[in-house]
Structures are given as structure tokens and as C-alpha cells.
Amino acid sequence: MNAMIGERGIRRWGWVLFFLMPSLLGLLVFIVGPVFLSLGLTLFEWNLLSDPKFVGLDNFRELYHDTRFWTAFQHTLIYIVLYVPTVFVTAFLVALLLNRPLRGRAAFRMAFYVPVVSSWVAVAMIWRWIFNPRYGLLNFLLGQIGVGGPDWLFDPDTALYAIVIASVWKDAGFSAVLFLAGLQNIPDTYHEAAQIDGANPLQRLRHITIPLITPTAFFVLITTLIGSFQVFDQAWLMPEPFARRGATVIVQQIVNNAFRYQRMGYAAAMSWVLFLIIFVVTLIQIRWQKRWVHYDL
Amino acid sequence: MSQTNQHIPGATSLALDRAIELLAQGVQYLLLIILALTMLVPFAWMVSTSLKTEEYVLRFDLIPQPASLDSYRELFDIMPMGRVFLNSLFVTVTGTVGQVLFSAMAAYAFARMQWKGRGVVFSIYLATMMVPFQVVVIPQFVLVSKLGWVNSYQALILPSLFSAFATFLLRQAFLTIPRDLEEAAIMDGANHLTIFWRVMVPLSKPVLATLTVFSFMSMWNSYLWPLFVARQEKYMTLPVALATLQGNNQSLTQWNLVMAGAVITLLPILIVYLFAQKWFVQGAVISGIKG
Closest Cα of chain B to A116: distance in Å? Predict the structure, then answer.
């Protein structure tokens, strides 16, 4: 307290306002205000031009029967079921490898992180080209080993798989860096002690590394899940127009209703349902963590 | 003879251990190389395609023959790429500098000033970190269009200037700075501005650097927001321009042009990454707090 500059009254508030106001005003106008506005919007039908019409809970009722929304919800779930475990295991494997005393570790780590810093638009373009059924690199390489590749982004049945592959490729490096930081926090003494007791590398992985990495794993799981419910850029950019119906996701429905059909209230209702889903899933995970996350050996 | 016999098992097992170890190391290298190639080949393919002339685009040569810069030239002909590039740069730099500065100032008010209502205001900041982008983007768009800001730099920059997460992170960093340093400055008659600029900012460089590169990356790569508030070529940013290049039908896509556009979009961020690698990785670890 005595370290604070001792001013009184107006002068002190002047300083507080000076430092706080730009940020606080902006936050109120662009985030806090919009949160409440969005909540209010869910009760209206509004196309931005005419006057908003109060419709009560009709937006939510409509949402309940909206097959397009629930199809998008299904696609998002399929995406999550395929993407989350794959990216999780790949990232952990990469982190284990990067944690070995191998030469060129820094260069390898850098390679894995390049897709992470890249823009999704550029990455989507690259993968659209690679996934091209006739002229793409992937089906060419598959052809070399005698496998006939599918039509990928041209086929509503396989478009979602292509999106999962590109997403794992782009995001694995991010979680790998988190896992690596977790691995490096495990004290060497644990491994040394186990080695003296005659534990082989697999036993050490099972009984030391995996239990001690669970806090990191928990964090990776929570953030990956939150992010995958919000999947948008790649699903919007990658599939061919006629194959898109096989890969519409929740956020795409929000964007379509808000910006294409100008149904602000309905889109806002969708965004709150999405928020609610994410919130509940995260809560369940926090509850469930006691069963598998070890904060100590 | 009997002695040698006793030694052989031990010796072979030692040699065996060594062999297993070498084998394991070999397997690890092999795995790493395969995985790293998987990461890098798509980028190599992008560069390679962008250097091919139109008639050779569909050939599967990694080294383009002949290599040419025609696709880059054509890209600048059909699109105001220079303008688009500068738009991206301007929006990203202004947005990043503004976000870090405003967040640091607010963080100072939270970490080093006593005022009524501080706790309440800080919990508002924390609460906003939970709300997903999709919830606020609709009212933000309503606001921007009611203000008549669609297709303007304000619309691109302003909403990203205010980050509760950055403020929170900087507050935590400022709290760890020992107070003795400020006390000495206060004795010398320093005011808040001097303490902020001469004590807090220099001592928080790692966090500031991390936030700067992260904010730079997310603004440079941002797509959804610019797509809806800046569709005119005059205000278009690189990701939006690149997405318009692909056209609606892949059979009409000129892949060498699209790949040239992808190279131009990726190059700046990759250069920044190359020079500030440490802070990018740090940022991934720090974002852990965001949960």
C-alpha cells in the first residue's frame, strides 16, 4: 500500500481513468455490450433493415425442429470423434520423439510448428490442391502404391474426412508443444530412480510419464474440444460447393443465418446454444478429471 | 574355457542392449523424419506449383521445369495485390500495437493502482474470456453496419484492440515485479506514466513479446471477420483475397495462381516466426491459462 503513489481525489482517479479507459470502454462496447445484445437478439426476428419483431422463444422452438442445424451438429460430432483422438495421439507421439536426446531436435520442432502459424485460408488452398482427385498429389502418391484414392472434397461422403486430415496436420504441432513442455517438467530423478529399479522404457512410460503428463493432457483435451465445436474456416473453405452438404458444421449455420439470410435473432439463438453445449461439455470434463488426472505420482 | 563360457552371456547381452538402443534410435529418427516430411511436403508442393507455368501445372514434378514467376506476375495483374498486402500489414500492425498497449495500460491499473470497484471490474474482464467469438460476432456486425463502417479500416481494426485475455496475462506479469524498484522511482518523483513506461514495460518484455507475436499471428491470419466487414477490394486483406481466387469450381481454378497467393500470404508470418520462434512456442504454453 505504501508503495502506491500517494495521491488523493481527482488526481488519482484521473490516472486510473487514463490507464483503464481505452481498454474498458472498448471492452464494454465491443464485447460486454454485444454479449447482452446477443442474448436479447435471441428473442427477436430481425433482418437489420426493418424493425426488430419480438417473437419470444420462437427462435429456439424453430431451432429444435431445424434439420439443417442438427445435421450440422451431427457433422461437428463426427469431426470431433475423428479429430480429437487423432490429434491428441499424434501430438503426444511427436512430443515423446522431440523429448528424446536426438540431434536436430530444434529443427524438427520448428517443422511441426510451421502449419500452426500458417493461415487457415492458405492451408485450405494447399490441401484442396493436394486432395484434387485427378491432379492432386495425394491420389497420385496413393496411385504409385496401387491404391485408388477417393474423390475427397468432391464427394459429400468423404469431404469431412479430408477436413479432419488437414486439421490434424495443421494443429498437431500446437498440442505437441504443450505436451513437450509438460514432459520437460517431469523431474529426471523419477526416471533415474525407476531405471535403477530395473524398469524398462515401456514400464517407465506407463508408470511415470503417462501419469505425470495427465494435467497437460487434460488441458490439451479441454482446449481441443472447445476449439473443435467451433470448427469453421476449413469446413467453409475446403469442400467443393456440391459436396458441402456433407460437411456443414454448427458455426457455418450461424454464419449462413446471420450473413446470408440476414436472420440476426435466429443466428444469435444458435450461437447461444453452441455456447451452452461447449459450457456443459467443459463442465463435465472438469468433473471427470478427478478420475484420471494425477497432480502427483 | 569355463571362465569364457561364463562371460559370454553377459557380453552378448551387453552387445544386444547396445544393438537394441541403436535400433530404437534409428526407429525414432525414421519416425521423426517421416512426420516432419508430412508437415513440410505440402509447403514444398505449394512453392513448386506457384513456380510452374500454366501448361505444366498438372504435372507431378516437384522441381518445376521450366520454373517461372509468371503466376506471381499474373496475380498482380488480376488483383490489386500490392494494396491488399498493405491492407493486411496496416491492419495487423495497428491492431497488434493497439491491443498490446491498451491491455498493458489496463493491466497496470489493475496491478498497481488502488481504486474502488477494481475487483468488480476485473471480474467482468475474467467473465468475458469465457464467451466464444461466435456469440459476440453477430452484435459486433450489427454495430459496425449501423455505424456505417462496413468496408472501412475501423471495422477491421477496432474490435480486435480490446482483449481481456491479454490484460489478464499482463496483470499477472506486472504483479510479479518487485515493488522496491517503483519505490526508488517514486522517491525520485516519478509519476504513474514514468513507472509504467520505464519500470513495468521493460521488465515484462518476455510476456509482451509473446503477446505481440500471438496477436500478430491471429490478426494476420484472421478470415471470418474481415470476410464480412471488408469485401471491397479497397479494404480486402490477404486471406479474404486468397479465398476469392479459388473460384467456385475447381476445374476453373488456376492452381499456380492460387499457390502464388498462398505463398504471398504465408511468407510474412513465416519470416516473423523464423525470427521470433521462441515467443511463438512460449505463447502456446502461456495460452494454457486461457482454458
Answer: 10
Euclidean distance between CA atoms A104 and A38, whole angstroms: 50
Domains defined for chain A, CATH in brackets: 9-41 (no CATH), 58-291 (1.10.3720.10)
Task: Give CA–CA dist A163/B70, Å, rounded.
Answer: 31
Distance separating alpha carbons of residues B93 and A154, to the nearest angstrom:
38
- List the alpha helices (DSSP H) in B118-254: 118-128, 133-146, 153-157, 164-175, 180-187, 192-194, 201-203, 205-221, 224-229, 238-245
pLDDT in tens, B142-186: 999 999 999 999 999 999 999 999 999 999 999 998 888 888 888
Which positions in chain A touch B116 (Cβ < 8 Å)?
Answer: none
Is the Cβ–Cβ distance between B156 and B229 less than 8 Å? yes
Task: Round to whole Å and give the CA distance between A23 and B98.
Answer: 10
Give the predicted TM-score (pTM) of the model: 0.91
Helix (H/G/I), strand (E/B), else coil: B182: helix
Nearest to A108 among B36, B183, B249 (CB): B36
**Quick one: B274 and B178 in the same domain?**
yes
Q: Are residues B144 and B280 in the same domain?
A: yes
B113 & B256 share domain: yes
In a domain, B114, yes or no: yes
Q: Which domain holds residue B278?
A: 82-289
Nine-digit cell string for A23? 481498454
Asked whether A221 and A137 are in contact (CB, 8 A), the reply is no
Mind telling me how many Å the CA of A268 is from chain B's nearest CA?
Answer: 7
Q: What are phi and psi of A44, to 5 degrees?
A: -125, 155
ipTM of the complex: 0.90
Phi then psi dihedrals of residue B68, to 5 deg: -150, 160
